[in-house]
């Protein structure tokens, strides 16, 4: 017996990368901007931070969902206990990339799947190693503008791929949505309904 058709998820995000990943997975969804403003206090634990932001994003649009599951996601970059969120300007972006150069950092995403009846919140971590970057590498990447609006000031699915030496874990997590974790959550709550489990 086949599972009933799945209701489209409501994605609480304006990220084109997250939309593209859901389309790639053939998971039906509608997207809406979350009514939530992120604040990253200095010294915050990155895992707690992304979990809290993901849940708050999902909750902020729950009233728009008509009972459908709401998906909230938040991603950050962490190195040596410091959170590298979105760069404020080109100088900030260059400083971030210089700090990540030749080192392995963590890309951490919080994923919240929420309905009026229940809330699931988990996180996924992928380790990314940058090759050593020269001043020319840094200047060229910052000049490209691709760093804007990106945690850690790079986009692995774009020119930022050229900064990366190795990825350990879910590549799509670095793009912006950990697919393996999302599928596990959907399978647990809706076995078979989204084509998995």
Key features of this structure:
7-stranded mixed sheet; Maf protein; alpha/beta; 197 residues; 6 helices; single chain
In short:
The protein is an alpha/beta fold.
Overall description:
It is a single chain. The chain is α/β, with parallel strands linked by helices and 197 residues long. The protein has a single domain (9-189), classed as Maf protein (Alpha-Beta Complex). Helices cover 31% and strands 25% of the residues. It is built from 6 helices and 7 strands; from the N terminus they run βαβαββαββαβαα. The chain has helices at 16-24, 46-60, 90-100, 135-144, 171-175, 179-189; strands at residues 9-12, 29-32, 70-79, 82-84, 104-114, 119-130, 164-168. Strands 1, 2, 3, 4, 5, 6 and 7 form a 7-stranded mixed β-sheet that branches. Helix 1 links the parallel strand 1 (9-12) and strand 2 (29-32). It is elongated, with a radius of gyration of 17 Å. The model has no long low-confidence stretch (mean pLDDT 95).
